[in-house]
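task queued by scheduler; priority normal; single chain, no ligands, no partner chains; default sampling; output format set to structure tokens
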Amino acid sequence: MLLSSLSRNEPVLTSREKEVLEYVILGLSAKEVARYLEISPRTVDRHVENVRLKLRARNRTHMVACAIQAGFLDFKGGMVRRIGRATANAGAA
């Protein structure tokens, strides 16, 4: 199961969880993410675990796949960017 039930009941990620998720998708370690965000690696690990649980993913790799499939993140022009309701609505205008 990837996200069949998530599309109806979309999990809510905090802005910090989304930010950490972006760095994880780029392949950064918890230590590297911690340096960028000026938080501890343990806090990064906690955010990653929270996202993994919210997305019902088995591991970090599955979490990334679930996040992309759910539309939390998208790849445009070789860069990762967050997808938000405002972004989606702006494209429709």
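post-processing summary
- The chain has one domain: 15-92.
- Residues 36 and 79 are 17 Å apart (CA to CA).
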